[in-house]
Amino acid sequence: MTALRDAAMKSKAWPFEEARRVLKRYEKKDPEKGHVLFETGYGPSGLPHIGTFGEVARTTMIRRAFEMISDIPTRLICFSDDMDGMRKVPENVPQQEMLREHLQKPLTSVPDPFGEHDSFGGHNNAMLRRFLDTFGFEYEFVSATEFYKSGQFDATLLKAAEKYDEIMAVMLASLREERQQTYSCFLPISPTTGRVLYVPIKHVDAKAGTITFDEDGQELTLPVTGGQVKLQWKPDFGARWAALDVDFEMYGKDHSTNTPIYDGICRILGGRAPEHFTYELFLDQHGQKISKSKGNGLSIDEWLTYAATESLSYFMYQKPKTAKRMHFDVIPKAVDEYHQQLRAFPDQTPEQQLANPVWHIHGGQVPQSDMVVPFQMLLNLASVAGAADKDGLWGFIRRYAPEASPESHPGLDKAAGYALRYFQDFVAPTRRYRAPDEQERRALEDLAGRLAAWDGPADPEALQTMVFAIGRDHQFEPMKNWFSALYQVLLGADQGPRFGGFIALYGIAETRALIERALAGELAG
Question: pTM for this structure?
Fold first, then answer.
């Protein structure tokens, strides 16, 4: 364990780099609270999207890395800002008119348009927790509404009243002049309408812990405690860090310019600013930022319709500082790369294992891969075999890997089901076969002839060597043009698997028949 910890202290994998930054906070003495606190924040203004999952997944990876290099206990809090006012109605939920009647009310005071929970905020919180539980995350859920109303936030709010001028100085310096005229870090909750009020504050009484403001010409005074007042979102960020003594929080690049504000307010309120990590944004297939209110981009449920949870975790691990397009095309690649890393893991050195994404996905308890057939290959098999169910695919899989069965290879069995759904929803509607040109026709005729004469076992590597040799003999330059022709003419796709492996899986006689159909114009026609 000591050797592994030493390796972890030197690892360049980004979770270990972040974990070492957190550990450095306590190089002189352990935290007084007895643990290191990791936090993720979530605004339940709309249905949770995949970026929210990414924050928890990545923070969990850093937490696991920290636990490898330190004996200090850890906690992870998922904090929901569900007391925020609903500023606009999300486009992807029912009962739009009803929701419009409750604009500016705290999300936990807005009725649930789905009729399943006590509020819209409660519905979105439940969805978030269900998603996170699906992945087996260890976390504690905290509702801002409960945090405010229960009194847990009171001491920090009273401190904010005491330090009101200092907080306002930080905030006003970041605002345009017209916004400065009406801005206050405190937002009262209207005693009459229940709405979050964006109104100027006439007076803050630090000793009494109250604020005074006008609502519709009437002067009102409210205590800042007990959930009758909330903080604007930027001061709330820093105040939450101070109140909970947060050690680490990550957020998207769009927050990065606010980091000095968050840190400054945290310090004003007597806290120590946490370590933070900014990641690049998640984009939809058009390069637009994923939005909860628009519902664009992939949802967690959509990903899990076509692939296992680990493939999504793998996708989240990769290059968090690079913007990611979240659309259906990335799923097959993520699945296959995840299993490639699983297969590589047992033969790697401890240092290599700590840099392998699967170590971070599984917290060091890395399973074996039973994917003897790549996901992309299953997609192509579904395409040419016309399989309507998993049994059809298993007929080919058993011939390729006689030792495999749904019982002995449950991951492969699930993947076969995912591949069928993915093929039916995304591949079949977009397949476009084309006829071969003269060079390609001669090469395909050669391939059919060599398959007819093949008398050895259906060995993927030997078949791949033979396919490559045909491309060389027919002078394809570059060689990828030959493989592109195979995919486009025979599979109706621009990309595909190692073709030797595909022949071994689909069958030599079956591949030869497929080539003859293509040469006869039956596929492109």
Answer: 0.89
